[in-house]
Amino acid sequence: MTKTISLTDAQAKLTAATAAVDQLKAKLLDEGPGSVTAEELGQAALDVEHAKLALAHAAKQAEDQATAERLEQLELLKAQILDQASNAGIVLGAMEQLEYAAAVIFRACGGRQQLIAQATTAMRKAGVPRDSEGQAGQHAGLAWSDASMGRGDSVHVDDRQINTISPGVLIAAALERAAREAGYSTRHLQPAVEVPSALPALTQDPEAWLRQRF
Questions:
Q1: Residue 103 CA: distances (Å) to CA of 128, 141, 160, 187
Q2: Burial of 202 from C-beta contacts in 10 A (0-12 / 13-18 / 19+)
């Protein structure tokens, strides 16, 4: 069985063995040949050599242990990286939800545009004049308006004005809110997606903004 020794103990043994040789040499010089035998000096020198080898062995053991610990830490790091990076399923699910939500917004906005066009045509056929909001009693509270001031055609129902809404405006606001919720800026979507500054009222309170228009 291999006997192990710590690097500190091995260094201490070498220091002690070296000191013992130095003492014997000094004694031999001071007191003469009869004070120290050749066997004693030889054994002390062998003890120094043994201590040097023991120190080299301890140093190698310490190096091997440090290498093993480093590899263990790297394996742990690798496992952590793979664990945190293996979220394809989560991202895929989120992308599918985003795709579905965007499709709903496109259909809702497209259907709204079709509704306005059909309602405007029907009002014209029924003799409802343009911009007749003030004549609610004569036309059941219905009216219609041509596109103007950056807006498309619109219809009026009682006190409510129904306009076309761009799906891009709603999606941009949703992305801005999502980035804010995650603690990021919409700049992180670039260069793949360029999100313009959304309407502040829509971004701050989507429900209130939409209920005024839907």
A1: 34, 33, 26, 24
A2: buried
pLDDT along the chain (214 residues), means of 10: 78 91 90 88 91 92 93 94 83 92 92 89 89 66 76 80 86 90 88 77 88 75
Q: Is residue 108 a contact partner of residue 100, using CB atoms and an 8 Å limit? A: no
Residue entry with tokens 């980035």: 179
Q: Give the 3-state secondary structure of 141-155.
A: CEEEECCECCECCEE
Packing angle of the helix pair 167-182, 88-125 (nearest 10 deg): 150
Query: What pLDDT is recorded for position 151?
Result: 65
Structure tokens at 129: 């004049």
pTM: 0.59
